[in-house]
């Protein structure tokens, strides 16, 4: 394939074309360095001029308060499922979780390895088609945190309002919502996100953590590499960081800032998702099972009447250069992930394909 298609993958996912072109321009010889970022030592001025501005730009575009640290860590979001409990709680402590999807369930399971993990709310019995309302009285008074998954990538739901947690600190996995919708950092003790959804290529997670949320007397068993303090003290460079991924994320952060910041991204994502949801809601064959107020503006899920229809539709979409529209293997159906890098033109092509399919066309 020599032409770029519209890629609706949930992750790794589409990146802004301008960012790829900038990376291409500097790929072989990064200005001032005489080598590629991929060949660059992380202990150089050149790399400092990549990682620190990237972090600062993220601070600006997310309005991250000064009493929060920003870390670039390896192991993706899944490593955070294990890492944040070790840094915020002692072994055996009570840890509250809201289970609103597959990743939320994985985080909950991982929490059980460390503490007394409690599921305080779940939407599983309704196939994760809504976000349960969580109020302070549902939480354990001695819970070290409540963990939520801000945007549920597989099921296409999102918290459009954060739960009221009172004195219990809020921890959120915002992997598929970060930079795509406004997130009030100050309402969280900790936010983490795998970057391959909406920030860059795979290989890292961003962790935004309130300094005083981290335990000072962290348990002895916690390995050096898994202590946030280790990475805070070394500016995320205790060991070799994923230099290329950090560089690419920095370009994406600049792109977001240049294009109006997160507020503008959210506006565009609302418009893009509305094109699809409006079509689905007025269609006789496409259906979205999610409670309307909880619909994600990043991942739009939809089903067709039969498996044959789904197959035929996906083949038609692929034939038109609209790839990875297939739903997650757990839920089947279809899913269009429309992160920041997906232009409205791509969404409109998908909508056209859906309308044509409903009219009876098959290619
Ligand atoms: C993709 C995803 C994950 C897993 O991310 P990895 O970086 O692959 O570990 C976790 N949570 C959410 C919400 C995701 O979308």
What keyword list fits this structure?
363 residues, alpha/beta, Aspartate Aminotransferase, domain 1, Aspartate Aminotransferase, domain 2, 2 domains, seven-stranded mixed sheet, two-stranded parallel sheet, 9 helices, globular, binds pyridoxal-5'-phosphate
Produce the secondary structure layout.
Elements: E1 6-7, H1 17-25, H2 45-61, E2 68-73, H3 76-88, E3 94-99, H4 102-114, E4 116-122, E5 146-149, E6 151-152, E7 157-158, E8 170-173, E9 190-194, E10 205-210, H5 228-233, H6 243-258, H7 261-281, E11 299-302, H8 307-319, E12 322-323, E13 334-337, H9 344-359
Parallel strand pairs: 1-12, 3-4, 3-5, 5-8, 8-9
Antiparallel strand pairs: 2-10, 6-7, 9-10, 11-13
The structure holds pyridoxal-5'-phosphate.
The site of pyridoxal-5'-phosphate (PLP) has 12 residues, from helix 3.
**In total, how many domains does the architecture comprise?**
2
Whole-number radius of gyration? 21 Å
Estimated share of beta-strand residues: 5-15%
Query: What do we call the CATH homologous superfamily of the largest domain?
Result: Type I PLP-dependent aspartate aminotransferase-like (Major domain)
The CATH topology label of the largest domain is Aspartate Aminotransferase, domain 2
Give every kind of bound small molecule, once each: pyridoxal-5'-phosphate
Number of strands: 13
Shape: globular
Oligomer category: single chain
């Amino acid at each position: 394939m020599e032409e770029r298609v519209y890629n609706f993958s949930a992750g790794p996912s589409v990146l802004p074309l301008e960012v790829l072109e900038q990376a291409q321009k500097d790929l072989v010889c990064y200005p001032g360095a005489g080598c590629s970022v991929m060949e660059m030592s992380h202990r150089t001025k050149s790399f400092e001029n990549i990682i620190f501005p990237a972090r600062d730009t993220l601070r600006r575009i997310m309005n991250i308060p000064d009493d929060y640290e920003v870390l670039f860590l390896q192991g993706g979001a899944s490593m955070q499922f294990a890492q944040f409990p070790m840094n915020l709680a002692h072994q055996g402590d009570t840890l509250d979780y809201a289970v609103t999807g597959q990743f939320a369930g994985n985080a909950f399971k991982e929490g059980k390895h460390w503490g007394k993990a409690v599921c305080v709310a779940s939407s599983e019995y309704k196939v994760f088609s809504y976000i349960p309302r969580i109020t302070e009285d549902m939480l354990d008074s001695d819970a070290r945190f409540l963990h939520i998954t801000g945007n549920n990538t597989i099921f296409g739901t999102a918290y459009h309002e954060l739960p009221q947690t009172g004195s219990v600190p809020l921890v959120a996995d915002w992997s598929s919502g970060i930079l795509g919708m406004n997130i009030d950092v100050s309402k969280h003790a900790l936010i983490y996100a795998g970057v391959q959804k909406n920030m860059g290529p795979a290989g890292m997670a961003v962790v935004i953590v309130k300094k005083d949320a981290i335990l000072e007397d962290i348990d002895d068993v916690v390995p050096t590499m898994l202590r946030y303090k280790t990475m805070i003290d070394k500016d995320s460079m205790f060991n070799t960081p994923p230099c290329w991924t950090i560089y690419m994320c920095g370009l994406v952060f600049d792109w977001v800032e240049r294009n109006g910041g997160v507020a503008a991204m959210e506006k565009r994502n609302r418009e893009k998702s509305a094109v699809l949801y409006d079509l689905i809601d007025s269609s006789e064959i496409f259906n979205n099972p999610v409670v309307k107020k909880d619909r994600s503006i990043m991942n739009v899920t939809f089903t067709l009447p039969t498996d044959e229809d789904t197959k035929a539709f996906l083949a038609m979409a692929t034939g038109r250069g609209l790839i990875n529209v297939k739903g997650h293997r757990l839920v089947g159906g279809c899913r269009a992930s429309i992160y920041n890098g997906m232009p409205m033109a791509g969404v409109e092509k998908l909508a056209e394909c859906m309308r044509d399919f409903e009219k009876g066309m098959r290619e």
